[in-house]
Design a protein that fits this description.
This protein has about 675 residues and is of the alpha/beta class. About 20% of the residues lie in helices and about 20% in strands. The chain contains 15 helices and 29 strands. The chain is elongated, with a radius of gyration of 27 Å. α9 crosses α10, α9 runs antiparallel to α13 and α13 runs parallel beside α15.
């Protein structure tokens, strides 16, 4: 066991564990703590090899406790204990000198001694904690920098690092890891993806599941239960905790070399500590009244606008600074390219839960110099009814456009009266963004995401089937706007299967033809199914993983998806920063006349999109979401272009998507458009 290391007073800045002149400096915020103890552990040890009692007269400045441990070796594990007043109801103070706390600024975590159920049941035990890890790991970025891709060029691909390669069919050396993602970069390049959006990769608690389920095999798979905001999730790493940061950086560097940016799905609206009865991991024990929204009448009760037991008091000055420091760290030190904020509207509330017109934390993120070149994306709602789609505070913020998702689902399903709004969504949702000086690039367009049906299930189920979550099928959204095409779930009916495939292609085609930024969900390109479960948050199994055999079984869908992205990339007219004008687009009905905007039964729409410049061909798109085929009138050729079929979702593969080199001009002025199909004509030069 190491001999006790000498200690010095240390300094309050920076917070966390950092390299100092002669050792490691430790600093921790706690406004009302009256005493602090630093515990130092060897890897794997149950008891600390050194306990450092801090002297308030020497090791306390303003709101910080600090100490420098001379000659301390990197790799040392550490935790804190804080003493102070216990007054949950009156002031919200929850200090307990028996509880070992995680440093919320820790850059890497050791979770080998953590047992959530025991902490919540029996209470704190010596050595029972998540521990920070002292790091001194220089890294050679080899010239890498965060990408600075114009937003209109983006094609986003949402994936779960664990589920992406954990299935045996993935064929990677390290399944379910950052390294596994690297081994699948060729697939991402083949599709044409520009950015991956990683579901939570900040360290989270997989043990955070409702005890009422009584199912040991269920875990917090998705990871919306963060406790280590500065640390990569240990479950996605292969080596010792001292290697975790390097593994994440290796993944980022490899993706950047492939021209692919990295966006992180971040969870600052709540934490893994939960509400009353949840464990004290860090914030509860060092500043409960600072970090959480508490009930004014009884401050032992947590306000919950997230559905997860607590809500972070994000607009407290210190908490806002903590969040922004964390984001800047991931950009500056980890080279990520942006963030998607889970339940971001919760970050617009004050300490009492009242929505703010100008939330300091959101404006601080928007105006940060370090974050100026990053993408910032809001899930612009929360679990308590606050809905900001089209009005999220700030100008640079992009939004997950839930209106786009819902309207496109209804339209492709064949619901009547959707075409007017569908045109607005295809054109970039000007009704949401133009009036407040924003642009189509503020809209993240999507049909599916992690939360809800996969694309295959969207066209295969009318109802959710979440029994495996052991909540009586009460969890998950009931408003799915899905259609099973004639049979619920699995079927061997060839006609139904063909219709499902066509509907999936319709969704993908309209998505890639829309102004704004398209987002795909991992596995949709080869029709991954979760068997009707629209809330696989707790399913770390085949329901939540990608089965890569489907990439071969449904190779035609992979080809189709890649071809659509290529079509989008060769047409600047589909990738505009600003809204379309009448000179850019002409809306029509399938008969060539004006669209039947006000007809309640209308299920059809067409438009001609002009190229941006003399060298870019025009596009003509015809959509028939009705149950019967239609005879359509095609527009006359535009300038020096003739029409050629680029996409026909009613045609079998490979005629469903035709690359320019294989296209042939058509002279027909009328065309038979299949039921529930989309036809895309691309201008080709006159021969």
């Amino acid at each position: 066991m190491p001999q006790p290391y000498p200690v010095r007073p240390g300094r309050r800045y920076p917070p966390g564990a950092s390299i100092a002149d002669e050792g490691i400096n430790f600093s921790l915020y706690s406004r009302h703590a009256t005493g602090a103890t630093l515990l130092l552990y060897e890897p794997g040890a149950d008891t600390p090899f050194q306990t450092v009692e801090l002297d308030p007269a020497v090791n306390h400045s303003f709101f910080s406790w600090h100490v420098e441990v001379v000659d301390l070796a990197p790799g040392t594990r550490y935790a804190w204990r804080l003493d102070g007043p216990w007054d949950p109801q009156g002031h919200g103070w929850c200090y307990d000198a028996q509880v070992e706390l995680l440093d919320p600024w820790a850059r890497a975590l050791d979770i080998s001694h953590w047992d959530r159920a025991r902490r919540c049941g029996e209470g704190p035990r010596p050595g029972d904690s998540i521990r920070g890890v002292v790091l001194a790991d220089p890294y050679d970025w080899e010239g890498d920098e965060p990408l600075r891709m114009p937003s209109q060029e983006m094609v986003v691909y949402e994936l779960h690092v664990g589920g992406f390669t954990r299935h045996s069919s993935a064929g990677v050396r390290h399944p379910g890891s950052f390294a596994g993602v690297v081994e699948k970069i060729d697939h991402l390049k083949r599709l044409g993806i520009t950015h991956v959006e990683l579901m939570p990769v900040m360290a989270f608690d997989p043990e955070d599941v409702p005890p009422a389920t009584g199912a040991a095999e269920l875990t917090n798979f998705w990871g919306y239960s963060t406790h280590g905001f500065f640390a990569p999730h240990p479950g996605f790493c292969v080596g010792d905790p001292t290697e975790h940061r390097r593994e994440f950086r290796d993944m980022v560097k490899a993706l950047h070399r492939a021209g692919i940016g990295v966006l992180l799905d971040v969870v600052f609206n709540h934490t893994a500590e939960g509400g009353t009865g949840g464990p004290a991991i860090h914030f509860k024990g060092l500043g409960n009244e600072t970090f959480y929204m508490l009930d004014a009448a009884d401050r032992s009760r947590y306000l919950d606008f997230t559905g997860c037991g607590n809500t972070v008091n994000a607009n407290h000055p210190f908490v806002a600074r903590y969040i922004i420091d964390c984001l800047e760290y991931w950009v500056r030190e980890m080279h990520v390219d942006g963030f998607r904020f889970d339940l971001a509207s919760a970050l617009a509330r004050d300490a009492h839960g009242v929505p703010l017109e100008h939330p300091p934390v959101l404006w601080g993120i928007e105006l940060s110099d370090v974050l100026a070149g990053t993408k910032i994306i809001a899930e612009a709602w929360d679990a308590a009814g606050l809905y900001h789609v089209g009005s999220f505070p700030g100008y640079r913020w992009m939004e997950w456009n839930g209106r786009y998702r819902d309207n496109l689902r209804a339209a492709v399903r064949g619901d009547p009266g959707q075409v007017a709004e569908l045109a607005t969504r295809i054109a970039g949702s000007s009704d949401l963004y133009q009036g407040n000086l924003r642009h189509p690039i503020n809209s993240i367009n999507f049909v599916t995401c992690h939360d809800g049906f996969t694309l295959a299930d969207l066209v295969s189920y009318n109802h959710k089937h979440n029994a495996a979550n052991q909540e009586g099928n009460r969890d998950g959204c009931d408003h799915n706007l899905s259609w099973n095409c004639g049979a619920e779930g699995d079927t061997d009916d060839a006609e139904i299967l063909a219709l499902r495939r066509r509907q999936a292609k319709n969704f993908l085609t309209v998505l890639m033809l829309s102004q704004g930024i398209p987002m795909l969900t991992a596995g949709d390109e080869f029709l991954r199914s979760a068997h009707g479960n629209n809330n696989t948050w707790c399913q770390d199994n085949a329901s939540g993983w990608l089965d890569w055999t489907l990439a071969e079984t449904n190779a035609d869908m992979v080809r189709f998806t890649a071809g659509l992205i290529a079509l989008r990339k060769r047409h600047r007219s589909l990738r505009r920063r600003h809204f379309l004008t009448d000179a850019d687009i002409t809306w029509q009905g399938l008969d060539g006349g004006p669209p039947a905007w006000d007809a309640p039964s209308c299920r059809e729409l067409a438009f001609t999109l002009q190229g941006r410049g003399a060298g870019e061909p025009p596009l003509h798109v015809l959509m028939n979401f009705g149950a019967k085929a239609r005879t359509c009138r095609l527009p006359p050729p535009v300038a020096d272009w003739r029409w050629a079929i680029a996409v026909d979702t009613a045609a079998p593969s490979p005629r469903d998507l035709i690359a320019p080199a294989a296209q042939h001009s058509i002279a027909a002025r009328r065309w038979r458009l299949g039921a529930r199909s989309v036809l895309v004509l691309e201008g080709c030069a006159r021969s």
